[in-house]
């Protein structure tokens, strides 16, 4: 059994072992684990910078002219004249710098940044990112990044062979950026709060609103939450409430969540993940595989002595065809355990189970969404 098929078998077994008697029951989770605050989302930052100090693994300035232009502009800003000769150093690399500005970040706090090579540099290991401004979608500078680059991959090269492990043209600078500007909106200035479910579902949205209203009835004497759709739940701020304390209480409330039935299939890796609420109507399934083996055993024919003949090669091909499986099984999956047991009873491998699930879906017997990655 290959590693991919072995992994698929483990995943199916793990899904089966997790599902017990109460498979159809909803799962209880805290609101902070299933939803996020709309005003508390991340903001993406981007910048262009240079990494210096590489050991001959940087950009070749002829193939990456923007690296040389950036290096000259940087030196001129530092008061160093670059008129005259052309540099041929390969210890500099141009990179794109990206980061996520967390919600409610204040000036002076630090965030991690990621760097990715733009030119033909072979490795960023050992380099240092020099001062790079990071801008948001509005063009404003929100952070400045600088620091040593950490690269997880490595590359070893000899005269006749090269070994590369991981990605050497990308890395991270932990706590490498200092926030210089805070976001214009203030949390305390908000009138209403909007919760966004990470997995949109109408049933879960209604449950979240009901739990919040039950809490608000005891604390404030009335309902404050209203589900807008399958993803958003609006919370109206009571006049006597402090938003920070209100959100701290709400995010720790426990809600019973619900999700649509899904079957996720990855044909490249052979991974199959079946949700607990997947149902299959009664259907007959037959699966068989045809294996064709071709063996080439050429024969060498020598000429008779003193016949002035030539040595010849006579081809000989043996073809064997073998058909496995072909059994017919009736699947009726009222729950996940019965479905997986029925699929395993046919005796097929994970790649065959993928084909069977696709066929069951086409026949209209799979009462779930089939997601193929």
Automatic annotation (TrEMBL):
<dbReference type="GO" id="GO:0030288">
    <property type="term" value="C:outer membrane-bounded periplasmic space"/>
</dbReference>
<comment type="function">
    <text>Assembles around the rod to form the L-ring and probably protects the motor/basal body from shearing forces during rotation.</text>
</comment>
<dbReference type="GO" id="GO:0005198">
    <property type="term" value="F:structural molecule activity"/>
</dbReference>
<keyword id="KW-0574">Periplasm</keyword>
<keyword id="KW-0282">Flagellum</keyword>
<keyword id="KW-0969">Cilium</keyword>
<comment type="similarity">
    <text>Belongs to the FlgI family.</text>
</comment>
<dbReference type="InterPro" id="IPR001782">
    <property type="entry name" value="Flag_FlgI"/>
</dbReference>
<dbReference type="Pfam" id="PF02119">
    <property type="entry name" value="FlgI"/>
</dbReference>
<protein>
    <recommendedName>
        <fullName>Flagellar P-ring protein</fullName>
    </recommendedName>
</protein>
<dbReference type="GO" id="GO:0071973">
    <property type="term" value="P:bacterial-type flagellum-dependent cell motility"/>
</dbReference>
<comment type="subunit">
    <text>The basal body constitutes a major portion of the flagellar organelle and consists of four rings (L,P,S, and M) mounted on a central rod.</text>
</comment>
<dbReference type="GO" id="GO:0009428">
    <property type="term" value="C:bacterial-type flagellum basal body, distal rod, P ring"/>
</dbReference>
<keyword id="KW-0732">Signal</keyword>
<keyword id="KW-0975">Bacterial flagellum</keyword>
<keyword id="KW-0966">Cell projection</keyword>
């Amino acid at each position: 059994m290959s590693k991919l098929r072995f992994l698929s078998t483990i995943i199916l077994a793990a899904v089966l072992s997790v599902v017990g008697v109460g498979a159809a029951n909803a799962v209880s989770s805290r609101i902070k684990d299933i939803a996020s605050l709309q005003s508390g989302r991340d903001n993406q930052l981007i910048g262009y910078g240079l990494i210096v100090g590489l050991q001959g693994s940087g950009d070749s300035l002829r193939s990456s002219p923007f690296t040389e232009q950036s290096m000259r502009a940087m030196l001129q800003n530092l008061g160093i004249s670059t008129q005259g000769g052309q540099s041929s150093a390969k210890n500099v690399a141009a990179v794109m710098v990206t980061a996520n500005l967390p919600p409610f970040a204040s000036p002076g706090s630090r965030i991690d940044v990621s760097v990715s090579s733009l030119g033909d540099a072979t490795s960023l290991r050992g380099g240092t990112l020099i001062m790079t401004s990071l801008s948001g979608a509005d063009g404003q500078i929100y952070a400045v990044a600088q620091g040593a680059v950490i690269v997880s991959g490595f590359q070893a090269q000899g005269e006749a062979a090269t070994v590369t492990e991981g990605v050497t043209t990308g890395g991270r600078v932990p706590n490498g950026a200092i926030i210089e500007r805070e976001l214009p909106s203030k949390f305390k200035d908000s009138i209403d709060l909007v919760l966004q479910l990470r997995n949109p579902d109408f049933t879960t949205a209604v449950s979240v609103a009901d739990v919040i209203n039950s809490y608000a009835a005891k604390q404030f004497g009335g309902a404050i939450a209203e589900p807008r759709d399958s993803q958003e739940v609006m919370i109206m701020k009571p006049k006597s409430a402090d938003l920070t304390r209100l959100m701290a209480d709400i995010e720790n409330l426990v809600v019973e969540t619900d999700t649509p039935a899904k079957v996720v299939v990855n044909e490249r890796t052979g991974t199959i993940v079946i949700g607990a609420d997947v149902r299959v109507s009664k259907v007959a399934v037959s699966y068989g595989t045809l294996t064709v083996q071709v063996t080439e055993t050429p024969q060498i024919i020598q000429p008779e002595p003193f016949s002035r003949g030539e040595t010849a090669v006579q081809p000989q091909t043996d073809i064997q065809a073998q058909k496995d499986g072909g059994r017919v099984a009736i699947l009726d999956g009222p729950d996940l355990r019965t479905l997986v047991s029925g699929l395993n009873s046919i005796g097929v491998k994970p790649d065959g189970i993928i084909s069977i699930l696709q066929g069951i879906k086409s026949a209209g017997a799979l009462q779930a969404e089939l997601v193929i990655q």
